[in-house]
């Protein structure tokens, strides 16, 4: 059997088109354009690329992108002062503080300064609490995107055994909450889990978010399972030439796709969904605030 490939690029495109249509409708009916503020502290090269791509996608969806780039030695108090100013700015509907922050800044403190109704990353304690309690929350983008991808191949997740590998605040924990909200029986597995392979073999839906290249092997997967690979790992690829690298997920893709029913590739699976869901959250926040 060869798994169905879940095309994250195509699904993300469709989400972005829906957002663009929603933005156009807001402009027509209410006369305003949603704005997303992104705060970047320092010069981390990967973060610079992410922030640039977020800005491009925001403008493509017809929204305003407001970028604040601060030097690496900016104090925590200065970052907090900026976040508070953005909280009070009526033209700003969403605020995203790009992570990681430099070592002298406590990301937890800064993130929790964001007005929960502008917290388009869904990372404040208020939104995390709302999600766990099953209340209307702004939901973290990568887990939200993962659920949308599962829905393209599985109409009803009710009663399915879902295993989430990883327990990060950004992905594992919120993804487990979202799967529970879909009435899955959810197991969160992690580095201390006993019989990890066996736990994975019981999964109808297996989501890997551990950041370990190709850790999940083909024989960990239940035949026909839906496999969502959240990992994006850069590994050496000497076969492509000296010093070359390639991106791989947390799942051994070739082996897994011979067993799974459906699988997300890396790249082109979950990755593109993150920005798409960020735009979706920004539109949602804008509508709630002033729609
Ligand atoms: N850095 C890597 N991923 C993310 C994300 O989803 N949100 C933020 N704010 N920073 C990140």
From TrEMBL:
Gene Ontology terms for molecular function: methenyltetrahydrofolate cyclohydrolase activity; methylenetetrahydrofolate dehydrogenase (NADP+) activity
Binding residues annotated for NADP(+), in chain numbering: 166-168, 232
Gene3D superfamilies: Leucine Dehydrogenase, chain A, domain 1 (3.40.50.10860), NAD(P)-binding Rossmann-like Domain (3.40.50.720)
GO cellular component, one term: cytosol
Catalytic function, reaction form: (6R)-5,10-methylene-5,6,7,8-tetrahydrofolate + NADP(+) = (6R)-5,10-methenyltetrahydrofolate + NADPH; (6R)-5,10-methenyltetrahydrofolate + H2O = (6R)-10-formyltetrahydrofolate + H(+)
Residue span, Tetrahydrofolate dehydrogenase/cyclohydrolase catalytic domain: 6-121
Keywords attached to this entry: Amino-acid biosynthesis, Histidine biosynthesis, Hydrolase, Methionine biosynthesis, Multifunctional enzyme, NADP, One-carbon metabolism, Oxidoreductase, Purine biosynthesis
Superkingdom as given in the UniProt entry: Bacteria
Alphabetical list of PROSITE patterns matching this protein: THF_DHG_CYH_1, THF_DHG_CYH_2
Ranges of residues in domain Tetrahydrofolate dehydrogenase/cyclohydrolase NAD(P)-binding: 140-289
InterPro entries: Aminoacid_DH-like_N_sf, NAD(P)-bd_dom_sf, THF_DH/CycHdrlase, THF_DH/CycHdrlase_cat_dom, THF_DH/CycHdrlase_CS, THF_DH/CycHdrlase_NAD-bd_dom
Name this polypeptide is given: Bifunctional protein FolD
Source organism of this protein record: Aquisalinus luteolus
Gene this chain is encoded by: folD
């Amino acid at each position: 059997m060869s798994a169905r490939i879940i095309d994250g690029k195509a699904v993300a495109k469709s989400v972005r088109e829906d957002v663009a249509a929603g933005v156009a409708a807001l402009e027509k009916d209410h006369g305003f354009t949603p704005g997303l503020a992104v705060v970047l502290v320092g010069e981390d090269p990967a973060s610079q690329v992410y922030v640039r791509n977020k800005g491009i996608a925001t403008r493509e969806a017809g929204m305003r992108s407001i970028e604040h780039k601060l030097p690496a030695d900016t104090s925590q108090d200065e970052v907090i002062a900026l976040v508070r100013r953005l909280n009070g700015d009526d033209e700003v509907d969403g605020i995203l503080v790009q992570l990681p922050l430099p070592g002298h800044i406590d990301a937890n403190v800064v993130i929790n300064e964001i007005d929960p109704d502008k917290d388009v990353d869904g990372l404040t304690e208020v939104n995390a609490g709302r999600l766990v309690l099953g209340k209307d929350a702004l939901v973290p983008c990568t887990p939200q995107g993962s659920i949308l991808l599962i829905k393209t191949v599985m109409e009803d997740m009710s009663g399915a055994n879902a295993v989430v590998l990883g327990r990060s605040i950004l992905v594992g924990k919120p993804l487990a909450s979202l799967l529970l909200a879909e009435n899955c029986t959810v197991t969160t597995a992690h580095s201390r889990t006993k019989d990890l392979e066996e736990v994975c073999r019981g999964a109808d839906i297996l989501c890997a978010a551990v950041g370990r290249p190709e850790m999940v092997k083909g024989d960990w997967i239940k035949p026909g399972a839906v496999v969502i690979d959240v990992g994006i790992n850069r590994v050496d690829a000497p076969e492509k030439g000296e010093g070359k690298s390639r991106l791989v997920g947390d799942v051994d893709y070739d082996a897994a796709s011979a067993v799974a029913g459906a699988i997300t590739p890396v790249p082109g699976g979950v990755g593109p969904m993150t920005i798409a869901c960020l735009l979706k959250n920004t539109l949602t926040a804008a509508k709630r605030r002033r729609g």
